Amino acid sequence: MKAAAARVLMTGASGGIGRAAATELRAAGAQVVGVGRGAQAPAGVLVDGWVQADLNTPEGVLAVAQAAATHRSNVVVLAAGQPCFGAFAQTPAAEAAAVLHSNLLAPLLLVQALLPQLQRLPAAQIVFVGSALGRIGVPGYSVYGASKAGLHGFAEALRRELAGGPVHVQTLAPRATRTAFNSAEVLAHHAATGTASDSPETVARALLGLIESGAAERYIGAPERLAVRLNGLLGALLDGSFAAHRRSLPGPAGTATHAAVAATATTPSTP
Ligand SMILES: NC(=O)c1ccc[n+]([C@@H]2O[C@H](COP(=O)([O-])OP(=O)(O)OC[C@H]3O[C@@H](n4cnc5c(N)ncnc54)[C@H](OP(=O)(O)O)[C@@H]3O)[C@@H](O)[C@H]2O)c1
User: Which pLDDT value is given to residue 252?
Assistant: First the structure.
């Protein structure tokens, strides 16, 4: 739908991408109600309303569902997320569980709570913010990639399940984006592997375009779009492309080896 007709409810509105998206959507004429764990929208986050909610709790999900009803939200953008980077062998089980909860289970439960009211509207859109890493497995992102792969798979199935009804399901898949989401370790890994990144404003424009186009999904970055297609067709053929990503992971004790690896890395850059 056109932005001017959109009454957007957006999780992750206090984050780097959410903040830029709220500005972009409002400039195009949308109303935006943001969701975050803080009591109010952080300074510089331009929204028409704010919901304080921890999406990992039933109370938070209920608060967002009530706000969506109050504001008659017809576009839901699920941009809240939690990062996870590092060798899987050194990833604490509690961290893996928390990431899967935040990035996969929480959006599923929120959508389940919102669906009845969205299905009563003449037209509504649900936009999941996934990741290129949800379609391409990259060393260092096994848990994060699993959470986003789950989200992509859920969105695809839900889109087909709801086809013919008023609720349209879409997925936006950014590649690396310059926000606080990425730690210094991740940035060093990007540098060592030649990983390209976008500004949050670029992602915000892609989100607006996705909402207005009604397309099922949008991947940001031409190399990533190609890699996603190749990976889907012939994934094993890409296995050899990730040696630099693998070798430049931080060591078991958290000792970064990026500089040494960057000097010897010979594999092509990847998403
Ligand atoms: N940055 C990237 O490189 C990149 C690339 C591809 C995809 N993505 C995806 O894009 C989305 C936004 O990322 P970003 O870069 O904007 O991250 P960010 O700046 O770190 O923001 C994360 C957002 O998630 C919210 N959040 C996290 N856990 C929450 C919870 N339990 N309840 C409520 N809100 C919660 C945070 O809200 P609080 O204010 O409550 O902390 C914050 O608004 C994420 O889904 C991420 O996976 C990011």
Answer: 64
pTM: 0.92
pLDDT in tens, 117-172: 999 999 999 999 999 999 999 999 999 999 999 999 999 999 999 999 999 999 99
Instruction: Kindly list the structural domains of the chain, giving each domain's residue range(s) and its CATH number in brackets, ordered by start.
Output: 3-264 (3.40.50.720)
Tell me if 145 sits within 8 A of 85, measured CB to CB.
no
| Ligand 1 centroid from CA 143, angstroms | 16
Which residue owns the Cα nearest ligand 1 atom 1? 177
Read off the tokens for 87: 């060798």
Q: How far is the CA of 80 from the centre of ligand 1 (A)?
A: 4
* CA 78 – ligand 1 centroid, Å: 9
By CB atoms closer than 10 A (0-12, 13-18, 19+), residue 241 is middle
- Spacing, Cα 179 to ligand 1 middle (Å): 9
Helices marked H in 121-195 — which ranges? 142-162, 184-193
| DSSP assigned state of 42 | P
| Distance separating alpha carbons of residues 186 and 128, to the nearest angstrom | 23
Using pLDDT thresholds of 50, 70 and 90, give the confidence band for residue 237.
Answer: confident
**Number of H helices and number of E strands within the chain?**
10, 7
State which of 171, 177, 207 you would mutate to test the pocket of ligand 1, scoring each by most atoms of that ligand within 8 A of its C-beta.
177
Q: Which residue has the CA at smallest separation from atom 19 of ligand 1?
A: 15
H helical segments located in 79-141: 93-100, 106-119
- Closest residue by Cα to atom 7, ligand 1, is 131
